[in-house]
Amino acid sequence: MRVDPIAKVGRWYAAARRARAPLADAMALATVGRGGAPSVRFVLLKAVDPRGFVFFTDTHSRKGRELAARPRASLAFYWDATGKQVRVEGRIERVTAAESDAYWAARPRGSRLAAAVSMQSEPMPSHAWLLARWRRLRRKLGGHAVPRPARWGGFRLVPTSIEFWTRGAHRLHLREAYQRTPSGWRRRLLQP
């Protein structure tokens, strides 16, 4: 029986949500900066489908600039509640404007206002300065829609490898590694 590892991640993610794993959608995203220096931070998974794993951000932020310059990344999930971890590596592509618009419209209004006033990763004089910008835009727009800034959008990690880790007794964890090949996914078991 052939296993679709992307679908398996989706099942594990759904199980973590059912188990009420804290922040089940949080994933560590690693990018590469100038000179090959790694950089990692947590982002939120917003979609997983046969094409890959989608997250949204300010595309002019540090992570956005790194992904544009070197469109490869890795991500990791860890769900202690289910004793499972997933590591994914692959290439990065931008999602369509329509996908970004659809997700933008689904975000809470306060979050849309925050993304509109924050130039993510840029210095600011104080947190009060940012809050004042947020309040000013909220007053200016009143009940009108918050337009999606051109710099805000989504990325999709298209996986080339996926590793599944299941906690085992005596640290005898189960590790399954899948590598994408021209003929499909190749599975190997790895020692813990």
Description of the molecule:
Helices cover 29% and strands 38% of the residues. The protein is α+β, with helices and mostly antiparallel strands and 192 residues long. Strands 1, 2, 3, 4, 5, 6, 7, 8 and 9 form a 9-stranded antiparallel β-sheet that branches. It has 5 helices and 9 strands. It has helices at 5-18, 62-69, 97-106, 109-117, 127-141, and strands at residues 26-32, 38-44, 47-49, 52-58, 72-79, 84-94, 152-166, 174-181, 184-190. Helix 4 (109-117) packs across helix 5 (127-141). The chain has one domain (5-109, 151-190): Roll (Pnp Oxidase, Chain A). A hairpin with a 2-residue loop joins strand 3 and strand 4 (52-58).
Number of structural units classed as domains: 1
**Which outline best applies?**
elongated
Computed Rg: 19 Å
Low-confidence stretches: none
CATH top-level class: Mainly Beta
Could you give me the name of the CATH homologous superfamily?
Electron Transport, Fmn-binding Protein, Chain A
Largest sheet: 9 strands, antiparallel
How helix-rich are the residues, as a percent range? Answer: 25-40%
Number of helices: 5
Q: Provide the CATH topology.
A: Pnp Oxidase, Chain A
Strand content: 35-45%
What structural category do the secondary elements indicate?
alpha+beta
Helix-strand pattern: HEEEEHEEHHHEEE
Query: In the CATH hierarchy, what is the architecture at level 2?
Result: Roll
Count of distinct strands: 9
Distance between the termini: 24 Å
